[in-house]
C-alpha cells in the first residue's frame, strides 16, 4: 500500500529538518577550517580540500531539499575559490561571507523568494576587482561562463579571466551549463570543443536556438584548428580559440572586438 499524501509530507518535512541540522553542523566545521586557514594553523592544502568537500556537499544537497538558493550560493563560492589568485586573508574573509549567507538561509528554514534570492546573490563577493572605462559596462558585471571539465586547464583560464576583472562562472558539463546560462544570462560563454553529453559545436547551436542565450558571445576552445565541416556547423558569430600558450592572447582579441577592452 502506497503512503498517503500526509505521510509523504511528514517524511519530506523530516528529511528537510535533517538537512538543516546536518548543514548547520557542516557550517560550524567550515567556520573552524576558515579560522585555521586564516591563522596559518595546520596544513593549508588539506584545509582547502576539506573546505571544498563540505561546500560541494552543501551545493549538491541544497536543491534536493528545497533550498535552491543554498545550492546557487555554494556554487558561486566554489567558483570564487577556483578563480581566486590566492586564498589570502582578504579572500578568506570573502569566503566567510558566502558561508554566513548560507547559514542565514538555512537557519531561516525557508528558501528565499525569487526577488530576495536575486538581492542575496547581488551582495556576494566575486574575484573581479577592476573595471572598464566609465562609459562601458563595468568589467565585474561581465559574466563569463566556462564550460569545461574541472581540472588544471579550466582553473588556469578562470584565474586569468578573473585577474582581468571578469565575473567567472564554472560548469563541468554542457547540460548543466544550459541551466546555468538560462538563469545567469552570461555575456560570454567559453566551451571546450570536446565534452561528454554533447560537443562544443552542438552546445553552441543549442545556445543559439534558445531565446535566453541567443545574444551570448560563444567561444569554442579547441586543441587545434576546426575542420571545414565544424566551421560550417558553427552559428554565425561564434568564435574559436586554440588551446595552448596563445589561448589568452587570441581570446583577448575577440574580447576587444566585442568591446570588453579598450
Brief summary:
This protein has 262 residues and is α/β, with parallel strands linked by helices. It has helices at residues 5-39, 44-62, 68-83, 89-108, 114-123, 152-164, 174-184, 200-209, 228-233, 247-257; strands at 143-147, 167-171, 188-192, 217-222, 239-242. It has a five-stranded parallel beta sheet, sandwiched between helices.
- CATH superfamily grouping of the largest domain: HPT domain
- Average predicted local confidence, pLDDT: 87
Taking the sheet with the most strands, its summary is:
5 strands, parallel
Cα-based radius of gyration, to the nearest Å: 20 Å
The overall strand count is: 5
Derived from helix and strand composition plus strand pairing, the structural class reads alpha/beta
Q: Secondary-structure element sequence?
A: HHHHHEHEHEHEHEH
Low-confidence stretches: 129-136
- Spatial strand sequence of the major β-sheet: 2-1-3-4-5
Helical proportion?
Answer: 55-70%
The CATH topology of the largest domain is what? Four Helix Bundle (Hemerythrin (Met), subunit A)
Task: Walk me through this protein's architecture.
This protein is α/β, with parallel strands linked by helices and 262 residues long. The protein folds into two domains: 5-123, Four Helix Bundle (Hemerythrin (Met), subunit A); 139-257, Rossmann fold. The chain is built from ten helices and five strands. It has helices at residues 5-39, 44-62, 68-83, 89-108, 114-123, 152-164, 174-184, 200-209, 228-233, 247-257; strands spanning 143-147, 167-171, 188-192, 217-222, 239-242. The protein has a five-stranded parallel beta sheet, with helices on both faces. Strand 3 (188-192), helix 8 and strand 4 (217-222) form a beta-alpha-beta unit. Helix 1 (5-39) packs antiparallel against helix 4 and helix 2 (44-62) packs antiparallel against helix 3. The longest helix is centred in the N-terminal third of the chain and has 35 residues, at 5-39. It is globular and about 55 Å long. It starts with a helix and ends in a 5-residue tail after the last helix. The relative contact order is 0.08. Mean pLDDT is 87; it is low at 129-136.
Amino acid at each position: 500500500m502506497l503512503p498517503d499524501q500526509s505521510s509523504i509530507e511528514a517524511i519530506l518535512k523530516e528529511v528537510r529538518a535533517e538537512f538543516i541540522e546536518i548543514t548547520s553542523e557542516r557550517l560550524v566545521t567550515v567556520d573552524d577550517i576558515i579560522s585555521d586557514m586564516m591563522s596559518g594553523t595546520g596544513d593549508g592544502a588539506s584545509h582547502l580540500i576539506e573546505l571544498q568537500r563540505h561546500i560541494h556537499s552543501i551545493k549538491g544537497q541544497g536543491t534536493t531539499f528545497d533550498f535552491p538558493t543554498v545550492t546557487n550560493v555554494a556554487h558561486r563560492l566554489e567558483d570564487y575559490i577556483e578563480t581566486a589568485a590566492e586564498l589570502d586573508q582578504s579572500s578568506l574573509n570573502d569566503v566567510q561571507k558566502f558561508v554566513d549567507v548560507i547559514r542565514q538561509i538555512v537557519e531561516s528554514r525557508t528558501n528565499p523568494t525569487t526577488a530576495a534570492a536575486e538581492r542575496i546573490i547581488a551582495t556576494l563577493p566575486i574575484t573581479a576587482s577592476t573595471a572598464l572605462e566609465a562609459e562601458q559596462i563595468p568589467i565585474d558585471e561581465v559574466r563569463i561562463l566556462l564550460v569545461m571539465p574541472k581540472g588544471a586547464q579550466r582553473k588556469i583560464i578562470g584565474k586569468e579571466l578573473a585577474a582581468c576583472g571578469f565575473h567567472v562562472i564554472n560548469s563541468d558539463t554542457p547540460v548543466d551549463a544550459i541551466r546555468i546560462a538560462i538563469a545567469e544570462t552570461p555575456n560570454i560563454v567559453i566551451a571546450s570543443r570536446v565534452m561528454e553529453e554533447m560537443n562544443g559545436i552542438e552546445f553552441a547551436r543549442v545556445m543559439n536556438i534558445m531565446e535566453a542565450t541567443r545574444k551570448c558571445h560563444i567561444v569554442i576552445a579547441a586543441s587545434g584548428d576546426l575542420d571545414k565541416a565544424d566551421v560550417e556547423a558553427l552559428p554565425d558569430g561564434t568564435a574559436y580559440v586554440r588551446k595552448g600558450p596563445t589561448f589568452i592572447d587570441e581570446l583577448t582579441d575577440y574580447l576587444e572586438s566585442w568591446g570588453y577592452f579598450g
